[in-house]
Design goal:
Structural class of chain A: alpha+beta
Largest interface: A-B, 16 and 14 residues
CATH superfamily of the largest domain in chain B: YVTN repeat-like/Quinoprotein amine dehydrogenase
Number of helices of chain A: 3
Radius of gyration of chain B: 19 Å
Strand order of the largest sheet of chain A: 2-1-5-3-4
Radius of gyration of chain A: 12 Å
CATH topology of chain A: Ubiquitin-like (UB roll)
Structural class of chain B: mainly beta
Largest sheet of chain A: 5 strands, mixed
Strand content of chain A: 15-25%
Oligomer: heterodimer
């Protein structure tokens, strides 16, 4: 099933019992990005508010990469993903 | 229990403890994270800390053991069809929580009730200590909201909430830049009540429009709740009739510009301000940091400077950066350059905390 990797900037806000040191990788059942995210959020409910805003869009300063390519539309998450897909969630970086 | 002071800073929440006249930093929480505001609920002793994590949004944490441990609770949320609009020409856009900007506890007969004002300008109510929040549609859905202006932030916001100690159903809030509003039914219905305020920066025909008044902060005297003070963008205003009308207080020394105001909890005629050069500069007048104090309802002001830097001081104090304790004896203020001063004698003398803190957003006595 797809693998979701959470950057350390995110994992430090998870329940300490669930979070490992640094980034963590989770197997997430689902055939779309939205489904895979929901699978992760079902185990870590608080994480939803860190990755998505209250309307379900990816936060302005959060980036999601699917197999190395950043998603282009933060409000369209019905992107198909394969069992071998790797989804990276990290804080968007800008200059400085 | 010893007195404590919570300093919300750009890089964490610092808890200070007082020993005599001396304050020292006892602990910090959320080190490295932007803590924008703290709230102490005197009814049950719980502490709240608002964080703004930038990438990951605004968050709220609650402590039930005076800051030793914290638990994340819910934050207010806007619905998908809520929009932010302002009358200064910005196009409407979907409303999302940008910042938790003010808190107030409900009445003694309302355990667990917390009010929160946000940027954008929604007022939220929780009846369970922050586990759930409800937008107060009676205010949010008022058509006049579309006339509000953004202040220093991109959207109008609620920075001041006063719960009337005589009747907790009566709320008065202040908005940058949307004037002062009052509800007498626990937030169900609202009236704007900024009569007497004026905005010198507006075109002449809009100067007295109550909907665009840029209140920087509003405070209420606990013992005389009809007495309120406002630090406004272009001056200081006072009400002695429960915010129904406002009078300008024109002679604040050395200037009428500033963000912060504190009122004595037992004496409504005594109030403090931290003046600055107006508007475009926002630094102390002549590089001298002072506190202005009135003891006669604004008829006259003393300039308190003992213990404050009188040369090359460029500290700015934000609206929540000046605090007074429940007895009205101890004051504290913190600046955007991370300096913090305390006074044990109502501002006659000040002591600098021997620390170099991150930029200070807010101070709260516990």
């Amino acid at each position: 099933m797809p693998r979701v990797v959470l950057a350390s900037a995110l994992t430090r806000w998870l329940d300490p019992a669930a979070a490992g040191p640094g980034e963590i990788a989770l197997d997430a059942a689902g055939d779309t990005l939205a489904a895979a995210l929901d699978a992760v959020f079902s185990h870590h409910p608080k994480l939803r508010g860190y990755v998505l805003d209250e309307h379900g869009g990816v936060r302005h300063h959060v980036a999601i990469f699917i197999d190395g390519t950043a998603i282009a539309d933060k409000h369209r998450l019905d992107i198909p993903v394969a069992k071998s897909t790797e989804i990276y969630i990290l804080q968007a970086l800008s200059g400085g | 229990m010893s007195q404590q002071l919570l300093a919300s800073t750009r890089k964490g929440l610092f808890t200070l403890t007082r020993n005599g006249h001396d304050w020292r930093i006892e602990r910090h929480a959320f080190l490295g994270d932007n803590v924008t505001l703290a709230h102490v609920d005197a009814r049950d002793g719980s502490w709240y800390a608002a964080l703004n994590l930038g990438h990951f949004g605004a968050k709220l944490q609650r402590s039930d053991d005076a800051g030793k441990t914290w638990t994340e609770v819910a934050v207010p949320a806007y619905a998908s069809d809520d929009v932010i609009a302002s009358a200064d020409g910005k196009p409407p856009k979907p409303a999302t929580l940008m910042q938790l900007w003010s808190f107030a506890s409900g009445g003694a007969n309302e355990p667990g009730r917390i009010w929160a004002g946000t940027i954008p300008g929604g007022l939220f109510r929780s009846n369970d200590r922050g586990e759930h929040w409800e937008l107060q549609r009676g205010l949010w859905d008022r058509p006049e909201r579309m006339q509000w202006f953004g202040g220093g932030y991109d959207a109008p916001g609620i920075h001041s909430i006063c719960v009337d100690p005589r009747d907790a159903r009566t709320l008065r809030i202040a908005i940058s830049s949307g004037g002062v509003w009052e509800s007498r039914d626990s937030g169900a219905s609202w009236n704007v009540t900024a009569t007497g305020m004026f905005a010198t920066y507006m075109p002449p025909e809009r100067r007295e429009d109550p909907l665009i008044q840029d209140v920087h902060q509003m405070v209420q005297c606990a013992a005389a709740p009809d007495h309120l003070w406002v630090q406004h963008h272009n001056g200081v205003f006072r009400s002695v009739d429960g915010a129904r009308s406002w009078s300008e207080v024109a002679n604040v020394q050395p200037s009428v510009f500033g963000f912060a105001v504190a009122v004595h909890p037992k004496d409504p005629a005594t109030a403090w301000f931290v003046p600055a050069i107006k508007d475009e500069r926002r630094v102390p007048v002549d590089g001298r940091l002072v506190v202005a104090r009135t003891r006669d309802g604004g008829a006259s002001f003393e300039v308190c400077r003992n213990g404050l830097p009188q040369q090359d001081a460029y500290d700015l104090v934000y609206r929540h950066g000046l605090a007074i304790d429940a007895n009205g004896e101890h004051l504290a203020f913190g600046s955007t350059t991370g300096n913090l001063w305390t006074s044990a004698d109502q501002g006659d003398n000040w002591q600098a905390l021997p620390a170099h803190l991150p930029p200070i957003h807010a101070l709260t006595f516990a």
